[in-house]
Amino acid sequence: MTKIKNFFLNGQLYYVEQTITISDLIHYFNFNDSLLVLEYNNLICDKKHWKEIVIQNEDKIEIVTIVGGG
Which UniProt keywords apply (predicted)? Predict the structure, then answer.
């Protein structure tokens, strides 16, 4: 039996059946990982931990991309 987990990304609800990490999520949504700040369950998450953190049920993830301009 597969356990479905739900999580929130930028306020939107998503469901996942397989085990995924923060890094997997960033690549799936095609974010440029050098131009973003990631908040995981209300804490800023350092990039060096993205491959280690497995998304759990009810996690809240906020991704803010950095945009330059003039």
Answer: Chloroplast, Plastid
Return the amino acid letter for 16.
Answer: V
Contact 35, 6 (CB under 8 A): no
Q: Which residues contact 28 (CB under 8 A, 6 or more apart)?
A: 20
pLDDT of residue 67: 77
Instruction: Specify whether the CB–CB gap between 29 and 22 falls below 8 A.
Output: no
Would residue 59 count as lying in a domain?
A: yes
CATH number assigned to the domain comprising residue 35: 3.10.20.30
Residue type, 58: E
Counting the structural domains of the chain, the total is: 1
Tens of pLDDT, residue by residue over 32-69, are 888 899 999 999 999 999 999 999 999 999 999 887 77
Predicted pLDDT at 30: 93
